């Protein structure tokens, strides 16, 4: 399996030696260990909301920066290499072709040494496909990896445990169970009971920071000695999320204008431990974390694809409609992007609120500045998926031609 994938990727060595991108050629294996030919791929069909396009259709394609997305795509290609090459890239999106179809783009882009190289190679191996939402809904938001000051032991005001994954939690297909000392099980308790019983901690932080860390799902912890740790989502207790901010507003504890991370933290500092605990317990959901080393500080935590997220190179998408690991071109706008913006991103994550054909959550990076930029992102836009030319050719051979993806008239 891996050798077949590598045989395609060897074309990197050919492309790297050319001043201009060389035509892509598939290297055929030779010798006594020649693999049997693969069965022909079933011609993929695009959904009704996908339309073959041209690179000239992409806004500002000739000038967009590609380095971040190319770097992200190379990491996705490493994940592809571990998959069975005859398998579909995504069972939810069979129109994206099989793993073997992506070997040629992966090999080509590994040779890119500049934006100009990457642009020429992409035009050679990909066909852009515009996604036109059937319901007209288009929305792009932003997210980031927060940083929180922490301590190894509880030291005021860093007294709240960053909860570790408990040994008594049984996943149970999204409905976690708690294994009791006598061997029986029950639904995992709500937040109030968990915090009363006590939890193991990977670190300690301000109560408000831990609360928001549990909402965000992951974050980077920083310690006074300069070391860092990633708190990475491990599991939750299976209870429905309830907004504490709404409860604070409804009970008159804060105004709607104070319903931000900063405003809620300021209220917690005024309210004291007992009332803070009561407020947090309004949300019965409780999230547990694994401690991980920071790794490359320029990259984010691993997304749903299992690769580190790249600032302004990775995006969360609806994986019930789209495959992970594929390049996507986006046109949208946000103050945090400098206004009107076009760019290339790679689908490497997902999220519970990311639903829809043209729905993306752009990863902005780590820390307060990234958070401020991500917080400005909430706008409509356009989305194109890049498909390998081999896949696009099979789609066209099914009776679709050019930009018109409607089936031919009988």
TrEMBL record:
Lineage: Bacteria, Pseudomonadati, Pseudomonadota, Alphaproteobacteria, Hyphomonadales
E.C. numbers: 4.2.2.n1
Protein name from the UniProt record: peptidoglycan lytic exotransglycosylase
Region called Disordered, residue ranges: 164-184
This protein's UniProt keywords: Cell wall biogenesis/degradation, Lyase, Signal
Domain Lytic transglycosylase MltA: 147-290
Pfam families named in the record: 3D, MltA
Species this chain originates from: Hyphomonas jannaschiana VP2
Gene Ontology biological process terms from the UniProt entry: cell wall organization; peptidoglycan catabolic process; peptidoglycan turnover
Gene Ontology molecular-function annotations: hydrolase activity, hydrolyzing O-glycosyl compounds; peptidoglycan lytic transglycosylase activity
Annotated signal sequence range: 1-21
GO cellular component: outer membrane
Reaction(s) catalysed (UniProt annotation): Exolytic cleavage of the (1->4)-beta-glycosidic linkage between N-acetylmuramic acid (MurNAc) and N-acetylglucosamine (GlcNAc) residues in peptidoglycan, from either the reducing or the non-reducing ends of the peptidoglycan chains, with concomitant formation of a 1,6-anhydrobond in the MurNAc residue
Alphabetized Gene3D superfamilies for the sequence: Barwin-like endoglucanases, RlpA-like domain
């Amino acid at each position: 399996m891996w050798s077949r994938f590598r045989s395609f990727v060897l074309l990197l060595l050919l492309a790297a030696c050319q001043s201009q991108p060389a035509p892509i050629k598939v290297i055929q294996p030779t010798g006594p260990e020649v693999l049997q030919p693969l069965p022909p791929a079933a011609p993929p069909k695009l959904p009704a909301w996908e339309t073959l396009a041209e690179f000239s259709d992409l806004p500002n394609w000739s000038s967009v920066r590609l380095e971040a997305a190319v770097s992200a795509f190379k990491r996705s290609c490493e994940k592809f290499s571990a998959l069975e090459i005859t398998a579909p890239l995504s069972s939810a999106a069979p129109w994206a072709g099989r793993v073997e179809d992506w070997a040629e783009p992966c090999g080509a882009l590994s040779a890119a040494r500049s934006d100009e190289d990457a642009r020429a190679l992409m035009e050679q191996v990909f066909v852009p496909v515009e996604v036109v939402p059937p319901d007209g809904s288009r929305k792009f938001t932003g997210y980031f990896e927060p940083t929180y000051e922490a301590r190894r032991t509880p030291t005021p005001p860093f007294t709240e445990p960053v909860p570790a994954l408990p040994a008594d939690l049984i996943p149970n297909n999204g409905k976690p169970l708690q294994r009791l000392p006598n061997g029986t099980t029950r639904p995992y308790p709500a937040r109030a009971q968990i915090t009363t019983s006590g939890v193991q901690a990977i670190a300690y932080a301000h109560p408000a920071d831990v609360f928001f860390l549990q909402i965000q799902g992951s974050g980077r912890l920083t310690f006074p000695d300069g070391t860092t740790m990633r708190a990475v989502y491990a599991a939750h207790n299976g209870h429905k999320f309830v907004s504490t901010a709404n409860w604070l507003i409804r009970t008159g504890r804060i105004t709607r204008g104070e319903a931000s991370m900063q405003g809620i933290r300021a209220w917690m500092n005024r309210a004291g431990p007992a009332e803070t605990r009561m407020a947090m317990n309004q949300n019965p959901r409780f999230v547990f974390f694994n401690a991980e080393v920071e790794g490359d500080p320029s990259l984010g935590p691993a997304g749903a694809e299992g690769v580190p997220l790249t600032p302004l190179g990775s995006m969360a998408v609806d994986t019930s409609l789209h495959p992970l690991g594929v390049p996507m071109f986006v046109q949208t706008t946000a103050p945090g992007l400098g206004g009107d913006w076009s760019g290339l991103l790679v689908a490497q994550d997902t999220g519970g609120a990311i639903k829809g054909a043209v729905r993306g959550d752009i990863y902005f990076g780590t820390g307060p500045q990234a958070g401020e930029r991500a917080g400005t992102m909430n706008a409509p836009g356009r989305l194109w998926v890049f498909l390998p030319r081999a896949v696009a050719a099979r789609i066209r051979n099914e009776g679709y031609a050019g930009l018109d993806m409607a089936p031919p008239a009988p």
